[in-house]
What we know:
Shape: rod-shaped
Amino acid sequence: MTKNMENNNSMMMRIKDFFNRPAPLIIVLIAIICFLLLFISKNSVGSRIYVGEINKDDIQVGSVHYFVNGDMNYFYASNGVYNGEHKDTKVYTYQLGYYVVDSNNEYHEFLTRSKEADTAASLADIVNELSGWSLAESMSNRKFFTNDIMKNLNNLHLVIKASTKKGSKEADISLDYRVELNKITKK
């Protein structure tokens, strides 16, 4: 029994001597700081917030913004007001929405709406009513915020295509407006 107590005391003394030296404490503190720096830098690089608008003579969209991070993605665009040369034009078929443009000048569909109708509607009414968006999406279940979209979100365009001919899918009106975006986050 005394031999067992002596072994316990000896081990306790070695542990006490180990922790009484500054080197182990410094090593543990450095490891904690490195872990925290990696965690903070990963979270700050992954978050992006952009805000913007379209303010042209023929169309105004007052607010366009998106937020992406490692957890969720969110996109918002207020309804546009179209006063261009085609505002009174009646169209049967339309597709309007947001696209991203990559470095090869290729358009990738992000959020769009389209319809083929039997009765014509004013292009201005369609843009005014259907150009707004509000979309939140989890990073674990992405459908709209694909990798191609995420890489090129800083080059966002509102595209409007419409046909004045009943039954035609060929667009005779094609409008493209770049969204002027400002990055809010630092990285």
